[in-house]
Amino acid sequence: MSEPKRDRPLAAIVLAAGQGKRMGAAVPKVLIETCGWAMVEHVLEAAAPLGAHPTVIVYGHGGESVRAALAGRDLLFAEQPEQRGTGHAVQCGLPALGLFDGDVVILCGDTPLLSHEVLRTLVDDHRASGRTLSVLSADLDDPGSLGRVVRGPDGEFVAIREAADASADELALREINTGVIVVDARALGAALHALRPDNQQGELYLTDVPEILLEGVSDAQDGEGPRVGVVRCDDPGAALGVNRPAELLEATAQLRRRLLERHAAAGVIIEDPATTVVDAGVEIGAGTTLRPFTSIAKGARIGKNCTLGPHVAVGPGSTLADRVRVGAHSELRGVTIEAGVRILGPARLVGAVIGSGAWLSPGVVSEGSADGRIVIGERAHIGAGAVLVAPLTVGAEARVGQGKVVTHDVGAPASTENSKHA
Asked: Considering only CA atoms, which of 152, 150, 153, 157 is closest in space to residue 173?
């Protein structure tokens, strides 16, 4: 048996070259968003805890937009100029790793339900076993067009058979290839050179690599050679590649539920999961309550012991500190709200900074922007129906009367109670 290789370096190749014609989208398939992130971003976030470095993105259709969408991340990019199969895509990506000596995890950029827990189990099992290549598999009730894992009488891995090339007996198998493998980089390079387009699609299949490595075992004079095995996961979502709008719908539903469950496990109270939407990349503190029909967009940060809703939409770029209360039918976009603020709702607050302890009565509207912010000081009181127009500062403890349209600064502790227009 091969020695464990727990300390070997790990790199990653993410296949992101698909055009996605069946999705009918104007952007490359991997950039289609679900729960606030592009599909490929979900994959990268799942892989991040593995610490794989370098990570190569293999792009094809719409390559410039893929690079632009992932700008700022520590990634390498490789182009697949023509679509000749998954094996060809890895052939295009492997040279970007240079002289890397270690294991490579190969991922598909259209599998947004892939979790870091599943990937960690795969990599840990692969390293502990000392295998040359490990395939991640899952059991599905209806495998459809997915490749089947073929095993021998002893239960050992024999091959991955694509559905288009499978026999009737093989199509009856329920164990499928998820498209994720971990493989020794040097063995991968040698096997890629041996790929041939001898299949119904006339493509170079990455799924032929395990069988090629097994043939190397039989050719070895000492009977020892590459070891290939399968790690079966319990999460069928790991195999859900998105190729059609209906599959995106299914993935989104599962992701939304998974995201809510993670927040609930961290102490967030979600009164009605069926009507609550929280994007990926959202932070919510323990003890916060989300009432029905609340939505929180990617990048928003909510503190502890807040109450939002019902019917509250928190947009991108919004930060709420602890103990903030936002009443019904309110929209927050690009706001920073300090601790203890009360927004009674309905309200529409855009581009505002609201100091701690401030009180906003029902119907307040702020019209700020990146070029003109609205600043409301600590413990200020904004009357019902007031409209605040940027650029504007309302001082600490100042009062703005009901129904006022405020277009100039209000100093503390000045009041607009007795003026027709402030």
From this structure: 150
Q: How far apart are CA 269 and CA 393, in angstroms?
A: 35
In a shared domain, residues 234 and 307: no
Q: How far apart are the first and last CA of the chain?
A: 82
Q: SS3 of 314, please?
A: strand
For residue 79, give Cα distances in angstroms to 67, 99, 221, 348: 11, 19, 38, 45
Please, which contacts does 309-313 make with residues 24 or more away whose CB atoms are closer than 8 Å?
Answer: 309/271, 312/345
Q: What share of the chain is helix, strand, coil (3-state, %, to 5)?
A: 25, 30, 45
Cα separations in angstroms, 232 against 32, 62, 107, 109, 212: 28, 34, 16, 20, 21
Residue 75: inside a domain: yes
Q: Which CATH number belongs to the domain containing residue 217 in this structure?
A: 3.90.550.10
CA-to-CA distance for 70 and 50, rounded, in angstroms?
19
Same domain for 45 and 178, yes or no, is yes
> pLDDT at residue 6 above 90?
no
Same-domain status, 232 and 281:
no
The string of pLDDT tens digits covering residues 92-139 is 999 999 999 999 999 999 999 999 999 999 999 999 999 999 999 999
Q: Which residues contact 147 (CB under 8 A, 6 or more apart)?
A: 160, 161, 162, 163, 166, 176, 177, 207
Q: Which residues contact 330 (CB under 8 A, 6 or more apart)?
A: 311, 312, 313, 343, 345, 346, 347, 348, 349
How many domains, the chain?
A: 2
Where in the sequence is the domain holding 136, given as residue range(s)?
A: 10-239
**235: how many CB neighbours lie within 10 A of its CB?**
17
Instruction: Tell me if the pTM is above 0.85.
Output: yes
Supply the pLDDT for residue 141. 86
DSSP 125-150: HHHHHT-SEEEEEEE-S--TTSPEEE
Contact 56, 172 (CB under 8 A): no
pLDDT in tens, 365-408: 998 876 778 999 999 999 999 999 999 999 999 999 999 999 99
d(Cα 285, Cα 306) in Å, to the nearest integer?
A: 8
Q: Which CA distances in Å does 6 have to 124, 126, 130?
A: 7, 9, 8
